[in-house]
Amino acid sequence: MRRIPFSVQILLGLLLGVALGFLARAAGLAWLTSTLDTVGGLFVQLLKLAVPPLVFTAIVVSVVSLRGVANAARLAVKTLLWFGVTALIAVSIGIGIGLLTDPGRGVNLDPSGATAPKTTGSWIDFLTGIVPTNPVGAFVEGNVLQIVFLALVVGAAALLVGDAAEPFVALNRSLLSIVQKALWWVIRLAPIGTLGLIGNAVASYGWDLLAPLAKFTTAVYVGCALVLFVVYPVLLAVAGKLNPLRFFAGAWPAIELAFVSRSSVGTMPVTQRSVERLGVPREYASFAVPFGATTKMDGCAAIYPALAAIFVAQVFGVNLGVTDYLLIAFVSVVGSAATAGLTGAIVMLTLTLSTLGLPLAGAGLLLAIDPILDMIRTATNVAGQAVVPTIVAAREGTLDRTAYDSAGKRDLIEPAETERLDPVPA
Predict the structure, then answer these.
(1) At a CB cut-off of 8 Å and minimum separation 6, what does 117 contact?
(2) 103 and 333 in contact (C-beta within 8 Å)?
(3) Among the residues of 102-165, which ranges form H helices?
(4) pLDDT band at 55 (very low <50, low <70, confident <90, very high)
(5) Burial environment of residue 57 by CB neighbours within 10 A (0 to 12, 13 to 18, 19 or more)
(6) CA 17/CA 39 separation, integer angstroms
(7) Which end of the chain is more exposed for a tag (fewer CB within 10 A), N or C?
(8) Number of alpha carbons in the 13 Å side-chain half-sphere of residue 37
(9) Residue 334's closest CA among 320, 355, 308, 318?
(10) Whether this model's pTM surpasses 0.85
(11) Per-residue DSSP letters for 306-351?
(12) pLDDT at residue 168 tops 70
């Protein structure tokens, strides 16, 4: 019997998880909810366990493998520019939808009872969150941006040292091969993990929490859908001269997993694999995807904070002016790295609210439905993290267009591939 494609396996896991989640909620089966939570949580934990060594070794080897620092610098600058361009478009859509829908008007909530979340963001986090105080701590805490920083510095130093650093580079290549092999054993469990994640979400939250905030929830989903299914395809077609359908065929497993896992970092290994199979050179993907997993968040750091800021302002009776909307755009484009190592959207929202002078307690009004919103936000984040490297590689002329055009015809996990996971070539 022909093996079921990996993306279909994930879809089947998602459908079965929804069914089990509704069953657990309708019948009050606490043991089933707990089981689904354990299965999904363990899967994400296993993925996150592989992220620190994968990011460090892949970037070190990739930097050493680059032909020159000038090429690396050019790719990094273009990647950052595209991050900024797409973030600006996303936040503009968020503001536009907020002005059209007025998500906070007529909301029947008592703002006096809201309290500020324990985790908040600030511009100090942006400055101090990049450089670790303890290199070991960056790995222990799983702070991806700090690990990227360390890997770039170590890789650049090894590149300049030359032959004397070859034993160290060879060690990293070996570690990368080992981590990749172990990681794909974990990723094979994605259908089961998807079942647990979506099942627990349905069983725990259901849809009754959405009633008081239905307009706001709809606005967030519509905004993310516009970026995901309109903006990204247009950019791929116009800027990259690429068929958007081919992109979604290749990147869909990562987008689907992001939706149910609600973790860009946890999805990162699948995102990187998808990007490579779309024809992006592994040397570049090993830098762009881990960096984007922390700093490229069009859902959490652009659309959502814009809509949420408008929502909070309307609930508390604060009128926003043109300057305030410009500040929202500025924070979204520049400040997303302030969420490094922290819990995504809430930190970004508090950073936006504090910059505008709005009550931080307003964020507490949205905490109850945050897991439901986080699904589409994370899916949008991960899609953007795959779109930008694809466009940059296409414009640089390094994209393997044959691989891109055939990505949807090949499974994400193929027997021949899992038996031979070559590291980045020297």
Answers:
(1) 346, 350, 360, 363, 364, 367
(2) no
(3) 123-128, 135-141, 144-161
(4) confident
(5) buried
(6) 11
(7) N
(8) 11
(9) 355
(10) no
(11) HHHHHHHHHHTTPPP-HHHHHHHHHHHHHGGGGGTTS-HHHHHHHH
(12) yes
